[in-house]
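Hey,
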Amino acid sequence: NILLLDATKYEEEDLKSYKKEIENLCRKWNIGLFRGKWRSSKAGVINDFLGLINGKDKERNLLQFGKEVDLSNVKYIAVFDAGEGPCSDFLEEPVAQMEGDQSVALVQMTQYFTNFRENRIANAVKYLYQVFYDYIWQGKSLSGAMYSLGTNVLYRVKALEDVGGLDERSV
């Protein structure tokens, strides 16, 4: 099953057409669409979704396009910001890592800019990210102090449930 969790705050008039575009995209690809009650962007919609799949909250908006969405065995939640374009095989390595070690709660994937040759800022950030992902995060992971950036991440649903969901003040 693939579901899109939409954390957009639809208060502004110009976002109403965007809301319809999201629904049309999900309809086109037969993807389920979930919208929680907006309160804290990504963390809030993920926590609302956890409540839905655990049967604690049946009042949330789940739109199904095409086949019925089965929520009985959701193991992972992948999170990306709207402007990101993951590779087609982005889940292969993180899922294999999580399947191989049930103690892994999340796999934070790196991000990079495809326009680093044309854009000086993207090129500079590429080097900052390299230090951050290759050294700082490796050290944090080895010392058990890993954390999530809130995007480009794969969460284990059971781990999120065990800690009561995401802190809505930080993600």
